[in-house]
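Query form — protein TIGR01244 family sulfur transferase

QUESTION: What is the three-dimensional structure of this chain?
INPUT:
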Amino acid sequence: MQINQLSPFISVSPQLTPNDIGVAASRGFKSIICNRPDQESQDQPSTTDLKEAAERLGLNWYYQPVVSGKITDANIADFTAIMDKAQGPVLAFCRTGTRSSTLWALSQAPRLSPEAILTTTKAAGYDLSAQHERLNALNQSATKQFHSPTATHKANHDVVIIGGGAAGQAVAASLLKRKPSLTIAIVEPNNEHYYQPGWTLVGGGVFERSETSRAMKDIMPDSVHWYHAAAASFTPEHHSITLENGESISYRALIVAPGLILDWDAIPGLKDSLGKYGVTSNYRIDLAPYTWELVQSTQQGTAIFTQPPMPIKCAGAPQKAMYLSCDHWKRTGRLDNIKVEFCTAGAALFGVADYVPALMEYITEYGVELAFQTTLVSVDGPTKTARFSVIDSEGNSIEIEKQFDMLHVCPPQRAPQFVAQSQLSDDAGWLNLNSETLQHKHYGNIFGLGDCSNTPNAKTAAAVRKQAPVVAENVLMVLQGEVPRAIYDGYGSCPLTVERGKIVLAEFGYGGKLQPTFPSWLVKGTQPSRLSWFLKEKMLPWIYWNGMLKGHEWLAKPTILPHRPSDHEAAQACNFDQKQ
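ANSWER: The C-alpha cells for TIGR01244 family sulfur transferase are given below.
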C-alpha cells in the first residue's frame, strides 16, 4: 500500500482495496475520499465494498467521482467542501493518486503559490506542472478577492496561539522547550495575566489580590510575537485567522485557547448587583476582596452560595468559597447565627462520588442546607432577593424566591462567541476536539486546550498543566508530517478548601477515574489534608509562575504512543535487513 503525504491533514494513494482501508485505519486516518468512478475498469474493487469496509472500521467515507483529465471547477468546489467537513487525517485515492493530488492542488491554489503547491506534489511523487497555468489563475483570482484595504496580511508563523492565559502561555513554553527555532505568535488583548486558582484564597482572606496578577508583557516569552488584539474569526481553509482590527495572520498550525466567557448577563439583575447589596463572586478578581469583606462583616442572617449548570471552570470553586466562609464564621463564633445554603443546578454535591463522603462531613459540621437542582435565574440586589428555578421530585420546574444577606454567585459560562459561531465549534458552541490528542476533529493542523474545549475533563489549571505538553508534542508531530501520538487522559485537579489549613485534594481523569499524584501514605486525596493545603497555598503558585509558564513539565510528561513506521521506512528497514 502506497501512501503519499501532501500535508499533515491529507495524503493520497493509488487504488485502495478493502484490506488497504484496514491498514489506513491502523495508521490513524479518520476519513477516506474516493475520487475514482465505480466500474472505471474491470479490476477495481466495488465502491460498495470499499464503503462498507470504511464504515465497519469507523472511518468517514466520501464518494466524489471525477473523470480522469476532466477536473471541473465544480469538482474543485465539491472537493473543497468535503475537506472543510471531513475529520482528519484524510486519505484520498483514485487509480494512481494523480486525480486526488490534482484536486488538492487546485483547491489550495487560492491560498498557496503555484510553486509551493507544485513542489509539494512533486515531493509526493506527482508531477503536476501541466496545471501551472490553472493554478496561477486561481491564485490571482483569490488574491484579488481576499485582499482589501481593511485587511493586512502578515508573514506566516509556524504556530499561532489564540489566548495568552494559562493554556496559551503554557503550551507556548512547552513548544519552545522542544524546538526554540519555532516562529510562534500569541493573540491576546489583555494587559494583565492572572493566576485564577488564587482567587478563592483572596476571597478567603489568605492571599492579597496583587499576588494573583502580573503584567502580560512580563509573562510573554521573548521570542514570541504578541498580537495585542482579540481574535475575530477563523478561515481554516486558508490556514489563517482574522483579528478584530481586520488584520489577517497565517499559520502552519493553530492552537485555540481563549478560555471561556463568564455570562453575567444570563441572570437578570446580577450584573447590576455585583459588588454591592451583599452580592459577590470569586470568579472576578475585583470582587474576590469584596467576598472577604462580606465574610468578615456578616454577623447573622442568610448566606447563599450558587452553582449553575455545567460546564463551568473549576466546578469546586463555589463550594470552596462556602467552606472557607463557614470556617471563618465558626472560628469567630458566628456560624450558629448564619443560615448557609448551597443552591446547585446539579443533582449531587460533587461529580466524583469518591470525594463526597469527606465533603458531606463538612456540610454537616457547618450546618449547610443543600438544595439540588436549584438554579439561580434572577437577582434583585436592592431588596436582597434571589429567584431560583427548582426541579421537584416529579421532574416539574417551579420558581421560588429566597432572601439573602450575602449571595456568592458562580455565573453561567459559555465559549467565546467567535469560537461558538465558527466552523470549529460543536453543536453546543465549544471547540470540537479529539479528547485524547486534543486535535480538532475536522482540521488536522488545529489543536486546542483549556476552558474553551469540549473535552469532558474538569476545566482547571491542573488540566491545562497536563494538556500543554500533549498539544506541544502533537503540534510538532503534525508539522513534521506525522500522525499525533501524544495522549491526554483527562486529568484534572480540584483542591477543595474545606477549612483554612485543610484541603480535600480531588484528582481524577475521564470517567471520574481517580488519578492521585502522591502515594496514599503521603496524601490521601479523599480525606482532608494539611499537606494538601501547604501544596495549594505555598507550592502551586510558585510552580505555576516558575514551572508551568516556563515549559517545565514536572509530573506532567505526556504519554506518547509507539510510532508506526511508514511504508517508506518499513521498506528501508527491510532493505537494510536484506543487506545484512
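ADDITIONAL NOTE: The chain has three domains: 4-146, 157-260+415-488+540-560, 264-413.
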